[in-house]
Amino acid sequence: MASIARCLRVARPSARFAVVSASRTIGVRPFSVTATNAIRKYTKEHEWIDLSADKKTGVLGISEYAAKSLGDIVYVELPEEGREAQAGDAIGAVESVKSAADINAPISCKITQVNLALEEKPGTINQVPEDDSHGGGWIAKVQVTEQGLKDLEKLMDSAEYEEFTAAEGAH
Amino acid sequence: MAFALRVRRALPRRNPFTHAPPAQTRAYTQYLSRPVQIYRSTSTDPYLNLSIEHHLLQRSHPDSTVLFLYTNRPSVVIGRNQNPWLEVNLHQLRQGLPPPPSPPPKGSADDPPSPDSEQEARRTPIALVRRRSGGGTVFHDVGNANWAVICPPAAFDRDRHGEMVARALRALGVAGVRVNERHDIVMDVNDDGHEEEGRAREDGRAGTGSGTFKVSGSAYKLTRTRSLHHGTCLLQSANLGRVSGLLRSPAEGFIKARGVESVRSPIRNVGVGGEVFADAVMREFRRMYGESAGEGGVVVIGEAEALAAEEVVRGVRELRSPDWIFGQTPQFTFSTHPTEEDPRERPPMADFLPYGVSLHRASPFPPALEPPA
After folding, report:
1. How close, in Å, is residue B79 to chain A by CA atoms?
2. pLDDT for B3-30, tens place per residue?
């Protein structure tokens, strides 16, 4: 996801605040609660990835902030199952308001499953972009490579990401 | 989408353009790291121009700002996630454009009129193109000017460069030009019946009279490091009267599709020349970003030079392929009768066509439908 903070302010002046409050409820998952809870990290390009407790698999999607900035998503070009991607590779795209925006791999990984429900209801990404459950707006499930685990260290946790988007929206 | 990706990989890597002369000494690629760049293409090939544009998007320095101006020969350009069968009258497209009316023969009136077959041969072909950016279907010809601005994503704003082009048009004396809520450039016209010569007179129905007319669309492509905003401005197109028919598919009443549908807008020419328009847009661009690189601030890209980049050649090959133009169509169903999924009453069909047909076209194709590698 590219950052498109400025059009967000024009189209939806209150969206940033909505994002901040929403990411508190959806994005923050203190993994001290139970051992099975995932670790969630964010990229500067507004993708998120959940790492499973055994650090072998993950789920990825685009952030609430990105979904709000992009506006109504009308089509999702899903990644190709089985594809092996390096961190930063364009693996799919979403279309909204005449924009085709690339979805990039947050870390090096292999795509094992894609969220086919988004083909029928691309708007799910606007409603629950950071939901990795059945019916959520997640985009793909992946196998995490060794390089992927290293890539993960460079990403932001939810508090850092919240700060990052607040700064981006303000400049 | 996986289907086309797999097919693309199966294509032979042979370069059909190996006979192209090597790049000239001052290749345009040397400017890609400059902070402000302006390029113009001398080609009117829509596949080549879009591939040059994509090359600039991928290879220009992440912090640079780039303006690219070009003109295409007659083409219908659909958005990245559109359905050509739904957006375009493909039969009309394949017939091409009729030749412009020739001046009356100077000799005697006894000269026989040219036979129909000759007229047929002189029709101008129309290219069908799927671009990489989002949005709806548009028509291009040599009476349009295409403009593209590539900038860092942090600076991206859906209206900033539409406003730039609108200012350029106003500076040329085109009144009533503004960017609307759909990010299109429109012209408010209050026609008292004394319309200026050259303003969309070609179109007998749409494009005359009072009202608001679209003169340039907008579409965007956002990558990890760059954002692209491009549009096509109707300057002096002689074919405006044909656009509506070309962009109306006879299959519309039979197809239920996923993906993106176009929004119809009445259109009109702004009535300025291509060079005058380009100069005005470049002036506004430099006003925003400062002096541009290259001799005289403009880098001209010729066809041979563009094709010297392997990436551009690959881009052209991909954009020209049926796998891209048709194969990248999102899932849709064509049905000759009302179905549960699409209960609309169907338009009347010709007698010779079969009734009771329902075709489902999935994307990605199921493996069984994949052509052999």
Report:
1. 8
2. 222 223 233 334 444 444 444 445 888 8
Question: B40 is in which domain, residue-wise?
Answer: 2-102+123-369
- Distance separating alpha carbons of residues B348 and A8, to the nearest angstrom: 45
Q: What is the predicted pLDDT for the residue at B1?
A: 27
pLDDT reading at B37 higher than 50: yes
Phi first, then psi: give them for residue B119, nearest 5 degrees. Answer: -60, -45
* Residue with token string 């988004």: A118
- Could you report the predicted ipTM of this complex, rounded to two decimals? 0.79
Binned at pLDDT 50, 70 and 90, residue B209 comes out as confident
| B114 within some domain | no
- Contact between chains at A98 and B220 (C-beta distance less than 8 A): yes
**Which chain B residues contact residue A45 at CB under 8 A?**
224
CATH number 2.40.50.100 is the correct assignment for the domain at A5-170: yes
Q: What is the pLDDT of residue B342?
A: 87
Angle at CA of residue A23, ends A18 and A27, nearest 5°:
165
How far is the first Cα of chain A from the last one, in angstroms, to the nearest whole number?
A: 18
Those residues of chain A that have pLDDT short of 50 are 3-36
B9, B50, B53, B81: best mutation site toward chain A, by most A Cβ within 10 Å?
Answer: B81
Choose among A2, A80, A95: nearest Cβ to B2. Answer: A80
A99: chain B residues, CB-CB within 8 Å: 133-135, 158, 219-222
> Hey, of B7, B53, B183, B222, which one would you mutate to test binding to chain A, going by the most A CBs within 10 A of its CB?
B222
Q: How far is A8 from chain B (nearest CA, A)?
A: 9
* Cα distance between residue B80 and residue B327, in whole Å: 11
Q: Is residue B14 part of a domain?
A: yes
Answer yes or no: is B112 within a domain. Answer: no
Q: Do B222 and A4 touch (CB under 8 A)?
A: yes
Average pLDDT of B211-221?
93
**In the prediction, which pLDDT does B261 show?**
87
Q: Residue A71: list chain B partners with CB under 8 A.
A: none
Q: How do the domains of chain A map onto residue ranges?
A: 5-170
- Closest-CA distance, A74 to chain B, in angstroms, reads 7
Q: Per-residue pLDDT tens for B66-99?
A: 999 999 999 999 999 999 999 999 999 999 898 8
Instruction: Tell me the C-alpha distance between B81 and A47, whole Å.
Output: 22
Task: Measure the CA–CA gap between A27 and A22, rounded to whole angstroms.
Answer: 8
Number of domains in chain B: 1
Residue B356 lies in a domain: yes
Distance in Å, alpha carbon of B180 to nearest chain A alpha carbon = 13
Task: Tell me the residue type at B139.
Answer: F
In chain A, what's the furthest Cα-to-Cα distance? 43
Cβ pair B37, B294 in contact under 8 A: yes
User: Cβ–Cβ of B223/A120 closer than 8 Å?
Assistant: no
Q: What is the CATH number of the domain that holds B137?
A: 3.30.930.10
User: CB-CB: which of A96, A98, A119 is closest to B218?
Assistant: A98
